[in-house]
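re: ur question from earlier - yeah i can do the single chain one, its not a big deal. heres the input i used so u can compare w yours
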Amino acid sequence: MTQTALDLFAGRVRDNWGPLTSGLIADCSARLTELLQTPRTEAWLADLCHERPESRELFRDPVHGFVLLAHTEVGGRYRVPHDHGQSWVIYGVLHGEMEMGTYARVDEPGKGARLVKRGSTIVRPGNVQVYLPGDIHDTLCVNGPAIQFRFTARDLRHDTTMVRYADVGGTWVPAA
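and the output i got, formated as tokens:
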């Protein structure tokens, strides 16, 4: 039986899985970059490109817990600044373009926490973007619909340490 690019991705990531290191991030980034080059003729990817689901789980490792999701973002869709708690994430763009901003959290005595924007990157088809635990970012679909893969070290629906931010008078602060 011929393996799909998705099967190869999952197997290669599983074979190299371990604690968070620079090597693990480099390996997972390389594997996701390879997956983004998959011919659109593979059935799973042809279906994804045709159906353009808002969110679809593509793979979940039953032993290590890492998850690969696909998301379709409409043009102009903005997701507010957030972190991924104790987890890390690698985004890869298959189609369209995403702008991803990065922020630093500044805590001032008596004033609380606020965000300062560091900058932003346009992530184009075939490119990946890494966010480590504690990194704060937002996303904006600047050329949509965009299809992106989101590879996470664990299922983020069960991570209660994630922080989302809210715009209060032009300043991003932790959401209540």
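The first strand starts at residue 55 and ends at 60. not sure if urs matches, ping me
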